[in-house]
TrEMBL record:
It is a multi-pass membrane protein. It comes from the Bacteria. The gene is secG. It comes from Novosphingobium mangrovi (ex Hu et al. 2023). Keywords: Cell membrane, Membrane, Protein transport, Translocation, Transmembrane, Transmembrane helix, Transport. This is Protein-export membrane protein SecG. It is found in: Cell membrane.
Length: 130
């Protein structure tokens, strides 16, 4: 159903773009159709009324389909439980390597100095002290 409504949404959007592009920018409709029968459908005024009405209907349909598709997408992707696997907190896991990957390559620091630093998840935590 979601794919079908998405295709209908694309067709409505294409029709809306086409109807808008056909209209004259000053609101005169197609701008074609000389004198004769001013009340007919193919007169300038009749075409302007038709295109204005078609634009309003297509725009309303586009908005309704957008809201419907958004509601369907929320229902399809909703989960009951919140995933908390990436939350920080609790005790950090014991690390064998120092938190700063470049601490061992400096040469001036000993392993004891690196081990005395508190274990932290943030690799830039001790950068201000150096």
């Amino acid at each position: 159903m979601f794919v079908f409504l998405t295709v209908v949404q694309a067709l409505v959007a294409a029709a809306l773009v086409g109807v808008i592009l056909v209209q004259k920018s000053e609101g005169g409709g197609l701008g074609v159709g000389g004198g004769g029968n001013p009340g007919g459908l193919m007169s300038a005024r009749g075409a302007a009324d038709f295109l204005t009405r078609a634009t309003a209907i297509l725009a309303g349909l586009f908005v309704v389909l957008s809201i419907l598709l958004a509601a369907m997408a929320v229902d399809a992707n909703s989960v009951g439980d919140i995933d908390t696997s990436l939350q920080r907190g609790g005790e950090p896991a014991a690390q064998e390597a120092p938190a700063d990957p470049l601490a061992g390559s400096a040469g001036g620091e000993s392993k004891a100095g690196a081990a005395a630093a508190p274990a932290n998840d943030d690799p830039l935590a001790g950068a201000a002290q150096q």
